[in-house]
Amino acid sequence: MSLVPIFGGCGSRGAPLPPVYPNPPSIPGLIVAQQGSSGIMQFPQPEVSTIIGGQDVELESVQVLVYAERYPVLNVTVLIEGLKRQREVMVQDAEAEAAAAGVRAYLAMLELIVGADSWVPPPPSDDPDAPVATVRRRTPDEDAIHRVPKELLMQWQNQGLAADTILQSAHQLTDAVEVVSNTLGLPASIVDPSQPPPPLPSVGDSIWYESVIAAVSQPVLQKETYERPLQVSAFLGRAAVAHEVPVEQFDAILSIIEPPPAPPSVVYTPPVPPNEILQVSVSLGTPALGDLRTRYFFAVRSKSTQDVPGEVTTVVSMAPVPVPVAPTSLNVAIGSSGVSLTWDPSVADLLLRRLGPKALAYNVYRLLPGGVTGPTPLNPAPLLRPTYTDGTVRSGETYLYEVRAIIQESTLLPLLSPKRESRGVKSDPVKVTDRYRPAPPTSVSLTRADNIVTLQWTPSTSIDIVGYRVYRHPYPAPAIPERAELPVNEPLPDDPSADQASVAQEMKEFNEMVRAGWELITDGMVPFSRTFDGDADPAVRYVYAVEAIDAAGNLSTLAIGSEEEDSDL
């Protein structure tokens, strides 16, 4: 027997093995945060050159891997349907448990009479809604899927959602339904299927019921987070390289973060070097259809000059929050009723989805000293139109305003819907100069008792009224003279020594009413909407005129009251 040489086998010099290069080091400590319509990724700068297994490894670039998936969002309507499905499952499980108990009793009876070998199992149920197993036999994942409303589960499947996304959404829905159910005091299970809990009203049947569900669900919906873990192996099978940053561009995206100062200590500790952090921006402009949103998964890995990728150790999930684009073109005008603000409305959110006007509202803030936005908006309720008037301003003060857009997610009650504000558009400083007449008093009534006439009137509706002045003239009185918009001796707005009280107490020789023959019967300003004329001639009938004066010294038009019913004034 002769030996035949074998060529090309293991260790053959005719087929050398390709070189094996080590993987470059992994990049730990990835952090991702949303900034508008971008995801900001921060991670430590890896070593550009290192030695691994005795071989030099040179870094060529850092790869940014991104995977985007669609997912559903919980809302009040879904929670109501989940509560109804929970009731259905309770009844089904009670019926299944009762049927199983009957089978067990039947088996025990057969075993006593004819023996267990003679028993034939009953045929399977023809009911398509019957559960495959009772709740005691379902796994947690099976139970979560079983408790999702069938129409909703079919909708998720038709929308092409991944199986693990559907499972995570099912757990999220069942957990939220359990919290809402416990808060409402609904039963968690029943024993007797013949006594099911009362059915829940359908959506639209009871506005009160929907409002209660909305109020109870609000804390649950606000606390919901839609990030989820994803195994590295599953991520690598779905992700793609979105960016690749060469080593030469590291300096352009490098940030130096100084460590916090070390506390004083008698023991010497070496200084901590600053962290060199790379920052990469990734666009989040992948809109989802319908009620779905888009969730992102991020990872980074190094790549060597031998085209060998490094290991991925961390996958970070982020579910961007849809916030509207900030309003633009904030215009400010000073008018008789205060400072009026108008702006151009937002038209989209930062995830590139257009927003209808019914989904948008606005909040107006007044900036505090130092440019800090006030803690609460000026408007008591969200503004549905891009306009607002601040009627609480004071003459001579300077104000700055900021307007933010918000998305109202629910149409049930505005106060119950989650609100997400945009960045604000700010105004230039506005110095208020009041050059407008206040609202006049109305309905002057007179009551005479000999030589005393009591006057009462409805106060001015302006909020900065400092007092009233009253004139009289024997009947018939002359016509009301044309009056200037402002008092004759109004000080300049920029004069810090201006005495507004002196404006209100202008001298009689400069008073158009006095010069027209009317008598000013109040020495000072009347602070209330009532006064007396204690020097009225009992034989004379009078006509009275009342004017309001605001803090800036502006005079209102006159309100007339006469002892003659047919006064033409």
Total E-strand runs = 26
Distance between the termini: 142 Å
Q: Helix content range of the residues, please?
A: 10-25%
Q: Mean pLDDT across all residues, rounded?
A: 78
Unreliable residue runs: 3-9, 410-418, 486-507
What is the 3D shape? flat
Question: Which radius of gyration do the C-alpha atoms yield?
Answer: 40 Å
Structural class: alpha+beta
Total number of domains? 4
**Main sheet makeup:** 5 strands, antiparallel
Q: How many helical stretches?
A: 8
Strand content: 25-35%
Describe this structure in words.
By secondary structure, the protein is of the alpha+beta class. It has 4 domains: 31-70 and 232-290 and 303-316, no CATH class; 76-223, no CATH class; 328-431, Immunoglobulins (Immunoglobulin-like, Sandwich), CATH 2.60.40; 442-562, Immunoglobulins (Immunoglobulin-like). Helix content is 19%, strand content 28%. The strands form 7 sheets. Strands 3, 4, 5, 8 and 9 form a 5-stranded antiparallel β-sheet that branches. Strands 12, 13, 16, 17 and 18 form a 5-stranded antiparallel β-sheet that branches. Strand 1 (31-35) and strand 2 (38-44) form a beta hairpin. The protein is flat and about 135 Å long. The protein starts with 30 loop residues before the first strand and ends in a 7-residue tail after the last strand. 24% of the residues are buried. Residues 3-9, 410-418 and 486-507 have low confidence and may be disordered.
